[in-house]
Amino acid sequence: xxxxxxxxxxxxxxxxxxxxxxxxxxxxxxxxxxxxxxxxxxxxxxxxxxxxxxxxxxxxxxxxxxxxxxxxxxxxxxxxxxxxxxxxxxxxxxxxxxxxxxxxxxxxxxxxxxxxxxxxxxxxxxxxxxxxxxxxxxxxxxxxxxxxxxxxxxxxxxxxxxxxxxxxxxxxxxxxxxxxxxxxxxxxxxxxxxxxxxxxxxxxxxxxxxxxxxxxxxxxxxxxxxxx
Length: 228
Hints:
The protein is of the alpha+beta class. The chain has helices spanning about 25-30, 155-165, 185, 195-225, and strands at about 5, 10, 65, 70-75, 80-90, 100, 105-110, 125-130, 135-140, 150-155, 170-175. The chain folds into 2 domains: about 5-185, L,D-transpeptidase catalytic domain-like (Beta Barrel); about 195-228. Helix content is about 25%, strand content about 25%.
């Protein structure tokens, strides 16, 4: 569960009570235009500066995410304090945006009204740390299940992320390779789900093949009658 930004459309998270953030800080960050975070689902951000050993992020980052390897780190003063830990990013069509972000708010007991449970109740997103204006967050979830855009981390790791990160901390989300075998599906050895348009094309092609076979059959019957 979670939110996402894709094809220029941003998800707006409904943040429940208990948000641990200074209102003034939230106002500053939320007032930033989307371009300020350089968010993209296709191009990694240009990160300048010395890199933290073993990560694709720079020393200014407090949290680092590598979407290709589906891993994340916590960093303090340029040194890794946690990680790499396994994560799950957004699935096909709900990709987690890349960019250089900052923590906007925290909500230990956040619930998502956008992605409710089968019984209609809001879906729990424990230990949510929101870092992208469209509603993207780190939160407790299954690292082997694609999210709707957020970054799933295990329950234990999500608690560490929640307790370590503060409003204003820098979060860098990037990728290390442009490899089809990378990302959520590559790391988990899964085939991406087919897009609806692909299914429709296959169905249309199947119908066309059936009509073609039918015409061919009718033609053969006609030829047979002529010979008789």
